[in-house]
Amino acid sequence: MTTLTSPPGGAAIRHPAPPVTTGRTGTPRQGGTILAVPALVWYAVFMIGPVIAIFVIAALHWPGMLQPVSFAGLGNVRAVLDDPVFWDAVRNTAVQLAVALPIMIVCAYMLGYYVAQKPPGHRVIRYLLFIPGLISTPAKAMVFYAALSPDGLANGALQSVGLGSLTDAWLASPSTALACLIALDVWSGIGFTAVLFAARLDSVPDDLGEAAQLDGAGHWRTMWRIHFPVIRDYVGVVTMLQFLWTLFGSAQHVLLLTQGGPGSSSTTLSFLVYQKAFIAADLGYSQTVGVILFLAGLVGLLAIRRAFRQNY
């Protein structure tokens, strides 16, 4: 509300009314805070609670769900660190992340940039890229099993072109089992990630690319020197999501295709958590590995955030 004052012999002067305040501090009262209580309760029970439970169970000797529980202290930590299978799982997980994550992010960004340029049939390309994300994990595992079994499509294709000496039992060979799982991770994630990048690149003003091309920059330089810095924060977010998926979600691919074998050549940390909890019935060992996996994920997220210089 405003007030009008008219000084003697002059025009009326408009004065703004003082702001309306409520409460003792003079600031507008914030309503609706109680609406956040259900979400906070849900988060505390189903998110913070399980994390605390992981640390608690890691300190217990618990040989099965219906078995008596005793305090183990650091015994589980010593058992894990003395187990060569654990170190095989650490190596396999590190190789998986070091290979799958860069290939997935770089190739997905390049595909997303291509789709964002709206080539002929770009809408159909978006749908085709999204198909692996719509297929269930068991179905994707069956596709790879059919392709990589000893009498599968891969060996059949090699034999048909005269390269029968290169055939192998891909999923049953210690030298190729992990590589097959990495290929499945990349295939199942690259299309979905490319669609995300294309959606973000669509919001970049066209003037940036047009100005760069007028200055003589080709598509390669425009892609990496112009568009990539603009969506750098978004690339960091997607990299974090794919890092978490690869780190924690690889157990289902291992379970469906290799069972961690041959030996422990394809055992990852996430599969080791499952194996020790539900097969070996050693919950304390399993959750000790879970704690290590949780800390590895936290360190990885911080490293990715620092690498992309995030400000959130």
Automatic annotation (TrEMBL):
Record region (Disordered): 1-28
ABC transmembrane type-1 domain sequence ranges: 90-304
PROSITE patterns, sorted: ABC_TM1 (PS50928)
Membrane-spanning intervals of the chain: 34-62, 94-115, 127-148, 176-199, 234-257, 277-304
InterPro entries: MetI-like, MetI-like_sf, UgpAE/MalFG_permease
This protein's record includes keyword Transit peptide: no
Pfam family, one: BPD_transp_1
Source taxonomy: Bacteria, Bacillati, Actinomycetota, Actinomycetes, Kitasatosporales
The organism of origin for this protein: Streptomyces asiaticus subsp. ignotus
Keywords tagged on the record: Cell membrane, Membrane, Transmembrane, Transmembrane helix, Transport
Location, primary (coarse class): membrane
Annotated SUPFAM superfamilies: MetI-like
Topology in the lipid bilayer: Multi-pass membrane protein
Protein's recorded name: Sugar ABC transporter permease
Coiled coil feature spans: none
Subcellular location: Cell membrane
Family of the protein in this entry: Belongs to the binding-protein-dependent transport system permease family.
